Amino acid sequence: MAQIIPALIVADTYLYNDFEELKDKFEKIKPFLADLGGWIQVDITDGEFVTSKTNLGLEELAYFTKSANVEFHLMVLRLRDSIDRWIGLGPKRIIFHIEASGPEDIKNIIEKCRRAQIEVGLALNPETPTSSLKPWLDEIDVVMFMGVYPGHGGQDLISDAVTKIRLLRYSHSGIKIEIDGGVKVDNILQLKEAGADIFAIGSGILAMPDVGQAIADFKNVLSK
């Protein structure tokens, strides 16, 4: 069943601090949370793996994990040094980048998430071949294909993502496939038909004047 997850990412503006910005975005989503299965995605960037940096403390992030089913999308290097802190916040799912960790670290992170009964997934940047997933496909719950270059919202979908989704769905029918970035009302059906299950949508929902109507528009297309 297709699932929409609103993605909360800090904009490259300095209108407010990062926590207040994400909290404001969450408040816009909150009235519609039940219709979304209670899920949100919180994007975390470190200023190294991508140029943008999220500045939130653990106590601030706990505000979200206590209020919703949180999927952390961790765009960070050296995750082995901080994974215990992310697990300790109690998210429902952790997705991290295959490009940011070596094989031993990936194995260790997956095992830690499993022991904590947290779903775990690997994200791939647009330039990363799907073949790099091969050692891990039987160990993870979700594959996230980036439809844009990570770190900034509002980008257009890179069309290669559709092909990658289709090929992985053909070869691994049971795995969850998530697409993050560039998802719009006019391409979400194509992504679903290619084999995507989960759609992380940031500006396509939160930049719209009527958040509730934007969610309804996506859901109506997916119901076709």
Walk me through what this model shows.
It holds the Pfam family Ribul_P_3_epim. This is Ribulose-phosphate 3-epimerase. The protein is of the alpha/beta class and 224 residues long. It has one domain (3-222): TIM Barrel. 33% of the residues lie in helices and 20% in strands. The model has no long low-confidence stretch (mean pLDDT 93).
| Overall strand count | 8
Strand order of the largest sheet: 1-2-3-4-5-6-7-8
Principal-axis shape: globular
Low-confidence segments, given as residue ranges, are none
How many distinct domains? 1
Q: Main β-sheet: number of strands, strand sense, barrel status?
A: 8 strands, parallel, barrel
End-to-end C-alpha gap: 12 Å
- What structural class do helix, strand and pairing data support? alpha/beta
Q: Can you give the helix content as a percent range?
A: 25-40%
What is the CATH architecture descriptor?
Alpha-Beta Barrel
Continuous helix count: 8
Quick tags:
8 helices; TIM Barrel; alpha/beta; globular; 224 residues; 8-stranded parallel barrel
